[in-house]
Amino acid sequence: MTTSGGTLVLAPGYEEPGPVRPPDPYARLFRIPGARAFTAGNLIARLPMGMFSVSAVIMIAGARGSYALAGAVTATGLAATAVVAPWTARLVDRHGQARVTVPATLVAVLGELALLLCVRHGAPDWTLFAAYAATATIPNTGGMSRARWAHLLKGDPAALHTANAFEQAADELCFMLGPVLAALLCSALFPEAGTLAGAVLLLTGVLLFAAQRGTEPPVSAPAPGRSRSPLRTPGMAPMLAVFLATGAVFGAMEVVTIAFADGPVAGPVLALQAAGSCVAGLVYGRARRRAGLRTCLAAMTALMTLPLLAATTAGSLLALAGGLLVAGMATAPTMVTGMSLIQRLTPADRLNEGMTLAVTALLGGIAAGSAAGGWTVEHVGAAYGYAIPVAAAALALTTAGMTKARQP
């Protein structure tokens, strides 16, 4: 580059440098040493979470001819998980992820295999309940992954926001693919194939995840005196109530959509909601400005009216599919924001327990929403069953006004 008579002359082959692009926030995450390895293990371990209940229903109903029995067994497992999971998470906080996760997973895998054998060999019905209850020790690997990001990205709230958004998108992806994979294995191979594959994936993923000791957060020394339970933290109870109501949105939506579609197309239609949430989560993770919890819940309440309008007005499955896709886009931002608040409210030495309590509340809401959705479908009709997710989202929005936690 030279000047001639005050005029700038570019040398041959010289090109003006283009605008510098900011680094991709997700690429920055996975440049952290060990991040790719623990994420790979975590994704493998989380995929079975969307497989086990579907596989159990197909396996038990096919062998015993009773969907009522299959539903009761899976409900028992859900109730047992709600009781056991916070205790497992407390042990993780006290002794470390690897020391607790591997033995807890072995117990859960043995429970899945025991269920498979009991069904296959015609054991009494009570053994199915006992075997599936043993699977309640499945560790909350999603919560542990978020705890690792919180440790690795301490002091960088923007990067932590991106990591939490990625984890939520991963949740949606696993719960979108898991049921499809389970149904495919059980129908294409043999009824027990979904349970068996899920057990293998869970054990493999947890072993890989636990082996990444370099990214494992150290065990936090408890605060002087007795460490305070996350439940006693101001603002935590209302936040758990928000997660309970949000879970009811998901549980009701699933049951009502299955009833409305009434056929094999129900799975793909439901997957659209998860797909919308997954995409929205990844986009939200790139956002520099973050919405508050009440804003996210208000958006979710408004968007949940779209499936209701599609079902009651158009009555078209195609319109419903579009409504679910758009409605799902409010899910991930709501969950990311809610989990971020749970992280802020929870004492550092009880982080896994706090996040597991949120997941437990979510599971309880799913169970309640499923029951409410089923009752509404049976007594009012599938189309009007979509009023339950709208009401549950509105309840979550109202409850959020009771917490004083604020998004940074």
UniProtKB/TrEMBL annotation:
**Transmembrane region positions?**
43-61, 68-88, 100-119, 196-215, 236-259, 265-284, 291-311, 317-342, 354-377, 383-402
| Domain of life (superkingdom) | Bacteria
Keyword tags: Membrane, Transmembrane, Transmembrane helix
- Protein name, per record: MFS transporter
Q: Which Gene3D superfamilies match?
A: MFS general substrate transporter like domains
The record's annotation in InterPro entries points to:
MFS, MFS_trans_sf
Entries under PANTHER family matching the protein: MAJOR FACILITATOR SUPERFAMILY (MFS) PROFILE DOMAIN-CONTAINING PROTEIN (PTHR23542:SF1), PTHR23542
